[in-house]
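Each record in this resource describes a single protein on a pair of labelled lines. An example record follows, reproduced without changes.
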Amino acid sequence: MTTEATFRLEPLQRKDVRRCVQIEKVLFPGDDPWNAWAFNSELDSGAYYVGAYLDDGELAGYGGLAVAGPRGDEETSVHTIGVAPEYQGRGIGKALLRALLDRADELNAPVFLEVRTDNEVAITLYERHGFARLGLRKRYYRPSGADAYTMGRPRSAGAGTGEAR
């Protein structure tokens, strides 16, 4: 049985992009893992990115939320959540997701994402936090051709429930 990891969530730092790329290559070897340019582009865009840092400062995971739309009528999209395999199952992914959902709730914005149809662990996590399957994107991931579910969570679905906090 795994145990909860001791970590803190902080804004993702540019100095940690190299570590993000390393984690991506391990997590998504059959697809197109993000490179440094992709992460830097996300940070440049003003998207909300957080890192999960261990006590020794090592980056164990990251998550990013894009915000689009006019002020007061935003919608958000989870662009990525990644946890290094050696730290999975310890609450880091859940904490990253909750941080992203807290930001969406601050904006009173709905949240959308895509997830591989064969990633049952992630699908279960998302469903436990108020997401529902909205559709199927055939051959969404490249180059593997894996399908993805589009999932969504309404505005502030987790606010006040204790689950998304």
Summary: Residues 158-165 have pLDDT under 50 and may be disordered. The longest strand covers residues 59-68. The two ends are 24 Å apart (CA to CA).
